[in-house]
Amino acid sequence: MVYSQVVETTRIAKATRAGGPRDRLMCAAKELTYRDGMQVGVDAILTAADVARRSLYQHFGGKDGLVAEMLKEEGERMEQIYADALAAGGDDPRERLRALFAFLEKLPDAPGYRGCRFVNADLTLADPGHPAHDVVRAHKQRRREMLEAELRAAGHPDPVTAGIQLELLIDGAAVNAALRPEERHTVAAGLLAQIVIDQGS
Amino acid sequence: MVYSQVVETTRIAKATRAGGPRDRLMCAAKELTYRDGMQVGVDAILTAADVARRSLYQHFGGKDGLVAEMLKEEGERMEQIYADALAAGGDDPRERLRALFAFLEKLPDAPGYRGCRFVNADLTLADPGHPAHDVVRAHKQRRREMLEAELRAAGHPDPVTAGIQLELLIDGAAVNAALRPEERHTVAAGLLAQIVIDQGS
DNA sequence: TAGTGAATCGACCGATCGGTCTACTCTCGT
DNA sequence: ACGAGAGTAGACCGATCGGTCGATTCACTA
């Protein structure tokens, strides 16, 4: 049973006219899997991308391949965004982390925000053998190392534990912001992150 | 494409022989939706519960009804478990919260742990109109009020923000423990929770 | 200009989805 | 002894799933 009215899928095709079939497929997959979940059908993606069925299987081998590749690209994009947010804080590591959490605080305000794409994907794909799991794990691993590096540069007394804690706050806020958007979880996360960052200074 | 070998589903029926068809359906739904995700098929649930197809639709009206009811019961069970964990801490509110996080720390050690059932369900069911969403939101609402009440009793300077922060830590740890089980996220969460709890004391 | 590879359309496949329905069995209260 | 309600077995429904394939069009290049 479906409770919500169907949101038009062809709309996306217009905004995605740029690039070849491969790019259009990636773009459509990004949008639809985020908005409608990973269970979104191949047909919906094809319609949105305005691409022939065969092109999908030639470029990506199948839905799983498309999904995995999409997460990979999105991971790289997100890591760049994180790096930019850190850079906005200047040179001081603590200030850089502060800037990062200030940036994350505003994320849920984006229209259509539905939480962290990677967490959602990993929890949705119950099959432990799905190729997307490795992509997500690798992405989260790199993000944690990024946090740890900043904490280490800041001379934090326990950068490993603190890195995990910052990760918990980021993911916890993303999950809760998606689940109950009316509350300002990211603000509370930012405040607590501040305490973690300032430990031992 | 399915990457993992199929885990036998009939096994569960044996462990669920107790009670009528309704109870067996609930039990099977709890197990299968947690282990295999909410996408698990009706047939798998019926086989595991060793129950006729018709019984499901007579008792619950459909899969969605079964799922919603199951989450409701599980919510009540979890709230009781939380209450017990708090009670283990005695009378002092801070000690009670400490006891709660000590309990939560051990949760991921349970075999087959796959994170928080409610978070997983809510993120998996992309359809915003699915009845399960209300059940999950209500459950999380009550859990937050429970945390807030303890913090208030402890004379915490900002029980609302701290309540949210504890929630972030719990959910963040659950998500990450499911995603990368090899790391001890709950320990880091417990340490940070301690700091939140002790604020202003 | 002829040839080649990419992209398109759309029919088609078997499998599975959630759900409906008929027919039969069992048990229990009257 | 008998009828009612609950449970079971399983065929069946339309829809959709991911995936394959033949036939065609088109752009680019040798």
From TrEMBL, chains A, B:
GO MF annotation, one: DNA binding
InterPro entries assigned to the protein according to its UniProt record, in alphabetical order: Homeodomain-like_sf, HTH_TetR, Tet_transcr_reg_TetR-rel_C_sf
A Pfam entry, by short name: TetR_N
UniProtKB keywords: DNA-binding, Transcription, Transcription regulation
All copies of domain HTH tetR-type, residue ranges: 19-78
DNA-binding region: 41-60
Residue spans crossing the bilayer: none
The protein's name in its UniProt record: TetR family transcriptional regulator
Organism: Planotetraspora thailandica
